[in-house]
Amino acid sequence: MNRDPAASPEWYNDDFSQPVTDVHAALASLRSRAERRQYLVTQGVDNKTPEEAQRMFQELQVHQIELEMQYEELLLAQTEVNNVRAQYVDLYDFAPVAYFTITGEGLIQQLNLCASQLLGTVRQRLVGRRFALFIAPESRFEFGQFLTRVFNTTSTLSAELVLQREDGTRFYAQLEGLKVEHAPENAAANPQCRLAVIDTTARRESTAALAASESRFRRLFNDSHDAVVLLQGHTFIDCNNAALDLLGAQCKTQVVGQNSWAHAPVLQPDGRRTVELFQQSVAEAMQTGSKRCEAYMYKVTGEEIRVEAVLTPIEEEGGKPPLVHILWRDVTSERLAAEQLRESQARLSLALEASETGIFTGNIDLDRIEWDERAQAIFGYEYNPNPVPVEALDQRFHPDDKARIWEAIRAAIAGQSQLAVDYRVVWADGSVHYVTAAGRAVADANGQMAGFTGVLRDVTPLYAAEGELHYKNLVMASVLDNLPVVLTRFQPDGVVTERAGSGLGVLGLEGNSLVGTNLLERFPQYQSEFKKVLAGETINFMASATANGREVFVRNYAFFDEAQRQAIMLGFDVTEVEQNKKQLQAEKEFTESLLENSVDGIVAIDRDGIITAWNKQAARYFLQEPADVLGQPLFDVLPHLNCDEEQQIVGRVLAGEQVLLAGQAFEHRAGHYDAYHVPLRQEGEITGILIMFRDVTERDRLAEEATQLRLRQQQEVLSAILTTQETERKRIAEALHNGLGQLLYAAKLSLEGRAGTPSSPRASLKLLHEAIRTTRTISFELTPGILEDFGLRTALEELSKRITPTGLSVNLHLVNLEQRLRPPVEIAVYRIVQELLNNIMKHAKATEVEVHVAREKKRVEVSVEDNGCGFEPDALTTLPLAGMGLSGVRNRVALLGGKLSINSRLGRGTIISFALDE
After folding, report:
1. In order of start, what are the domains of the chain with their CATH numbers?
2. Mean of the pLDDT values across residues 409-415?
3. Which of 13, 269, 705, 714 has a CA 20 to 30 Å removed from the CA of 693?
């Protein structure tokens, strides 16, 4: 009998050796034990020996003690259950997650505080309402399906939907639903489910922002003019178009997925293994944060190039190997020039002259530069055989490149290393030229730095050619992606190796269709044309096909690429081109019609001020026909515009600025106009100016009328304020005269006594007590000190107590008003609620009022609802702005930046609400 009943919630059998999990079996066992004990009790002891009777008595005592202990354990268990239930209620109500209990009909049966805050209202207004009312209309069907699935399964289901709060604001939320399982005896009860709702708006916004950031990075990465590759481990995982151009590759698959040394020889010219060079460079970049190195590499065509690389490591999250950002630069030409310089002075002179390369030598001690005629010409100077100060170079460096150039020169001098840098120079005429410079620090016989020598070359045509090549690649990619063009490549035997382009969709085909097919066999009608191309001719021919039920004509241009040993054919859907021509013609006619029928005068000029467009409205404004002004200078046609201000405006617009010249008077008629100056761009360059002349005579007249209207409204508001003040003074005076004054006068008469006989002091004290009470009432109405001393909650509660005895039941619902608000907001809320309650008592004939004041998210939401007779809100617009009624309340709310909302119907009560920033 040493069992501890509190050690386990399980039932035990008669000998307490095994737990009994079946409650009915446990009850049956307990009943059997009780019957046996009853039998023992009812047995007579006459035929028992004293020892047996004594043993039976001891056993009954043990059973009695055991029952008493079990009863104590039950009491302790009940107390523990009550405590656990109280903890559960606290955890449920104050949980940071919104919890709902939803019935099978979709009604909200129970919710916690977080749920009411999430839906933007109090719990009392939510219980019994349909949860679907707080689902955005476009998501309600999906919510219905989700709720059906929850009630038809025993597992937890999730859904992300768009919800809306009581005030209509929307937010994204994650819903977790689980059906509530009833006990078997309550299986027929109304089904229920639990919903956990989490606001995921911030997470979705962060995800969207992250996706946008990744998109911008990808766009910058792909469109960069610098060759960039990404290395992870020892494998290229991405590259941009400039990197493909540097390696002569046609697609990323020729680079991505390969080892970093795949496009390099096994050994570098110095005998070092390329694999070791790459691995050591990556390791040093990881240690120092950046590494610059050079190596010999191969293009896809097999051409050897020398590449300068800048390695920058990028740490990855989640324990992934770090990324290495590698910027490539083809320095083959510079290195070859340097090698030629070391080989032979004669060959150097010849190479410098052939490549138009200039030589410069700098003296560090004298801070002067000696340079030849070509070097000076590269910087835009006329030849001067005398040394010049270093400032002569610095004056021509592009401002954005100065710091980088001097940093490279200082690094080369400090490390006695080779200088190789490209930069821009700006000539005196403003033109920008690209220059590549290479040099090395020179030491004297004592090892001291004596100067710096190097070469300069104008590489502007090279940069222009690279830019043109990049532009052409972009154009070709854009053509294949956006125009009905088909690119086909096939081998000398006629087998297709690639077929791509958006034009395949017009033909009803998918990308890379016919790959592996022999064109000579597939299209025998064009066999002669294919053979001509494979023979080396460049031809174009028309082909036709039927696609999507219509005949499509394709113009094909084909040539043979000897370097790649393949034929390339571009096919254009000329059917759509003709349709586009017709559409362009229609758009042109529409533009001309729009120009001619515009209510504004429209004039266009080129950069020289010559008129290129002049519509009918401009002719009506300035009394000159288009035929007389087209091709003429604008300032000759409109000489009154030829002033310093207009000349400055033209210069600003040609620089890319949009300028408005407002309030200009017509020269030939009364009225004014605004002139909008907009730059006209073509291919990114400003080619002229579009000037729109808009008649604003009527607008100015309406603006003047609006100004007068605002002044009248301000006067009416001022009058209403003054009237309100006078009304309040009158009310105070009447209260003092009719209330306090009469009470004091009555007290005076009482003290003097009627007919010369003094009255009892008790009657006088009663009158004085009434006068004091009246004084306090007037003082409380004027300046409620309780509001200043104890805050809005206490003041509103006191106001409710004062009104309740009048027969009007006031129910207050105050949320989050423990902390004080700004004084203007507190007094405004108190006065407005006070005025609305006074109006209800005077006019509404109501018996009950609901006052809601809630503070949420730095705003105070106020709502006053009565069950009175109601009124028509539209009738308020015809009432004057006088008194302390709804007009005064509206003005007070508007002065604090809020907006009053009135919802009332005759016979159905009134709801007046507003919100103010705390």
Report:
1. 5-91 (no CATH), 94-206 (3.30.450.20), 224-330 (3.30.450.20), 334-465 (3.30.450.20), 483-580 (3.30.450.20), 598-695 (3.30.450.20), 786-918 (3.30.565.10)
2. 81
3. 705
